[in-house]
Write a structure and sequence with these properties.
Length: 107
């Protein structure tokens, strides 16, 4: 699943919301744990942004982290901020070849 995919198309249930924030335009960004078909402990953490009823996926655990070497994936996610035009800051724990204590977190 790629960023920009809508919530309703992919997940049956969301639970354990974490780190939500709301901007002046009424948009929100949050991290959550999800369950549904094809979801397991390696891909069940997600970060979303958008207005109620129109959330877009920002990142998902188990998927390639942007601007990192191939095979570097998110293993955990949280939302650290959201500006007035809907740009969110997502923090993620990373895993993969070459990832160690000194570089296992990303923004």
């Amino acid at each position: 699943m790629q960023p920009g995919v809508t919530y309703a198309d992919n997940f049956a249930t969301t639970f354990n919301l974490r780190g939500g924030t709301v901007n002046t335009a009424g948009e929100t960004a949050f991290a959550a744990t999800v369950i549904g078909p094809g979801i397991n402990s390696g891909n069940n953490r997600v970060a979303w942004v958008g207005a109620p009823g129109n959330f877009r996926l920002l990142a998902r655990s188990g998927e390639q982290a942007p601007r990192t070497p191939a095979g570097t994936i998110f293993t955990g996610l949280s939302v650290a901020g959201l500006n007035a035009v809907g740009q969110a800051v997502v923090s993620g724990a990373l895993s993969g070849a070459g990832v160690g204590r000194e570089n296992d977190k990303g923004w």
